UniProtKB/TrEMBL annotation:
Family the entry assigns: Belongs to the KHG/KDPG aldolase family.
Keywords from the named record: Carbohydrate metabolism, Lyase
CDD domains cross-referenced by the UniProt entry: KDPG_aldolase (cd00452)
SUPFAM superfamilies the record matches: Aldolase
Name the record gives this protein: 2-dehydro-3-deoxy-phosphogluconate aldolase
Keyword Lyase attributed: yes
EC number(s) per entry: 4.1.2.14
Known pathway: Carbohydrate acid metabolism; 2-dehydro-3-deoxy-D-gluconate degradation; D-glyceraldehyde 3-phosphate and pyruvate from 2-dehydro-3-deoxy-D-gluconate: step 2/2
Length: 200
């Protein structure tokens, strides 16, 4: 379960992370969609219990900036050989966004076996991922974009999907209103639902 976070303010980062941890989620993807993203990553870097990643990473310069800020992995909306190369040089895992077999061929050539599917819901949901997985049995897919509490188990039912990416438990309104208890509740429900889906 990878929450995708868009911060309005950097000071939202720590209380949000603590709310997620209380709900059983110990990984977070802070996007670079706002100016608060980078300082938010810096604020979270000292939180040992949380695996902190950066999202919306689209250039090699972004890779350097987020790694310098403390990000432990990077996620991109698309596939960029330059981003993959820079991530490898900086020693951090990169999860490129894919939407087609052509994207997956680029990833395979770079020895990348864990990818994001974006925007998953608009591309056709689990059926789209199942179709892509057939000629790429080595790939593991993380659906992102339009994934919800109602659909997450449909994705997790696929053996090639080890994780999902979503934002419903960290919706911007929850952050703006500092409804940390609601974040914890939604995170707890998501984790419990995933465990049921996986038979854990």
């Amino acid at each position: 379960m990878v929450p995708v976070v868009v911060l309005d303010r950097a000071d939202q980062a720590l209380p949000l992370a603590r709310a997620l941890l209380a709900g059983g989620i110990d990984v977070i993807e802070v996007t670079l969609r706002t100016a608060a993203g980078l300082p938010g990553i810096e604020a979270l870097a000292g939180l040992d219990e949380m695996l902190v990643g950066a999202g919306s990473v689209v250039t090699p310069e972004h890779v350097d900036a987020v790694v310098d800020a403390g990000a432990e992995f990077v996620v991109s909306p698309g596939t960029s050989a330059a981003v993959l190369q820079q991530s490898a040089q900086r020693g951090v895992p990169a999860v490129p966004g894919t939407s087609s077999a052509s994207d997956l061929m680029v990833c395979a050539a770079a020895d990348v076996t864990e990818v994001k599917v974006f925007p998953a819901a608009l591309l056709g949901g689990p059926a789209h991922i199942a179709a892509l997985a057939a000629p790429f049995p080595q790939m593991r897919f993380m659906p992102s974009g339009g994934v919800s509490a109602a659909t997450m188990n449909d994705y997790l039912a696929l053996s090639c999907v080890p994780a999902i990416s979503g934002s419903w438990m960290v919706a911007p309104q929850l952050l703006r209103e500092e409804r940390w208890h609601d974040v914890t509740t939604l995170a707890t429900e998501a984790v419990q639902g995933a465990r049921v889906a996986l038979g854990a």
